[in-house]
C-alpha cells in the first residue's frame, strides 16, 4: 500500500482550512451586510411611503386637482413610482408608474384596509412595493421602489468577498508550502542520512545550522547516536580482528600437528583414525571461520579499501568461475550468455568479486550437489549473474535470512550434511552491496536454487 505524503497532507489541510474559513467569513459578511442594507432600505422606504401617503391624503382634501403634480414631486424626490386608486379605479399616478407593477393580491389586501409591503422580482428587476390604505377618502396609496441599485451594490460586494476568499485560499496554500517545508525538511534530511548510514556510509552526519530549538536538538541527538553506533561497530570489528589474529597462530600449530598425524595415520587404531578425521574436518571448518571472521572484520572496519575498476563483465565472470573451480578442484560449470548480451561493463573490486563467485560455487557444491550453470543476462536494466544449482532449493521463509551472519539452516542441526561457518553468504551480500548491487535467492529453472546477482551497468569505461 502506497504511503501518503505528510507534506501533501499538511498542504491540503492548510489549503482546505483557509478555504473553509475564508468561505465562512465571506458568507457571514455577505449575509450580514445584505440583511442590514435591505432591512434599512425597507424601513426607510416604508416610513417615506407613510409620509407620502399623508401628503396624498392632504392633497385630496384640499386640492384634488393638484394630485398628479404632487405625485410627480414625490417621484422626483424619492425616485419611486406612485399610484393612487379609489373605488378600484386608478385615480392618478406619477410619470414613471405602471399599474402592472402592483400585484393584484397586494391591491386586495390594501383595499381591505391592511397596510402591505412586498419585494417583487419582475423580469429580472427587483422592486419594493408598499401599499397604504387611506380610509378617510376611500383611497389606496401604492409606492414602488426600484432596488436594482441595491442589488448591484450587493453583487459587487459578493464579488469582492469571493475574490477575497480565493486570495485567502491562495495565501493559505503558499503559507502551507512554507510551513510544511520548514516542518518536513528536517525529517527528509534525517531520512536521507539514515538511508545513507543503512547503506554503509557511516561518515554521514547532519549539518548543525541555526535551526529551531527542536530541530537543533534532533540534529545533535542523531549525530550522537550515529557516533556511538560507529564506535560500537569499530570496537566489534577490532575485537573480531584481534581474536582472529590471536587464533591464527594456534590454528597453524594445530594444522601442522594434524598433518603430521595424517602421515602416521596407519599407526593409529580405528578409533584413533576416526577421531583424527573428525579433528581434521572440524579444524578445516575452524580455519575457514577464522579467515571469514578476519575478512569480515577488515571489511567492517574499512581496513581493506575497495579498489573499484570498470571491467568487462562476461570475461570477469569467466575468470572468476575458472579460478573458483581450480581452487577447490571442481569441474567448471557451463557459462551461458543470453542473446543480446554483448560486452556489458560493470564497476567492481576484482578480488572481492572473485570471492563472491567462489563462495557461491563452493556453497552449491557443499549443500546443493553442484552448480548446473552460470547464466548471464539483463534484468531490470542491470547485469544479472544467475548461479543455478542442482539442490532442493531454498525454502521461501529462509530466502532473506540465509544471508544473515552465522545462519546455516538445516546444516546447523544435521551432522550428516557438510558444515560451513555461516559467514560465506553474509560476506557475499556485503561485497555485492559494496559494488552497488544486490543479491537474492530465486527458483532455478533446473529445479534447484538460483542465486541472482544484479550489478549496475556502466555506459562508458572510466578513464
Short description:
This protein is α+β, with helices and mostly antiparallel strands.
How many structurally independent domains?
Answer: 3
State the name of the first-level CATH class of the largest domain: Alpha Beta
Quote the beta fraction.
15-25%
How many strands, what sense, and barrel or not for the largest sheet? Answer: 5 strands, antiparallel
Structural commentary:
The chain has 463 residues and is an alpha+beta fold. The chain folds into 3 domains: 6-154, PAS domain (Beta-Lactamase, 2-Layer Sandwich), CATH 3.30.450; 213-301, Helix Hairpins (Orthogonal Bundle), CATH 1.10.287.130; 308-456, Histidine kinase-like ATPase, C-terminal domain (Heat Shock Protein 90), CATH 3.30.565.10. The protein has 9 helices and 12 strands. The protein has a 5-stranded antiparallel sheet, sandwiched between helices. A 5-stranded mixed sheet has the order 7-9-10-12-11. Strands 6-8 form a two-stranded antiparallel sheet. The protein starts with 5 loop residues before the first helix and ends in a 7-residue tail after the last strand. The model has no long low-confidence stretch (mean pLDDT 80).
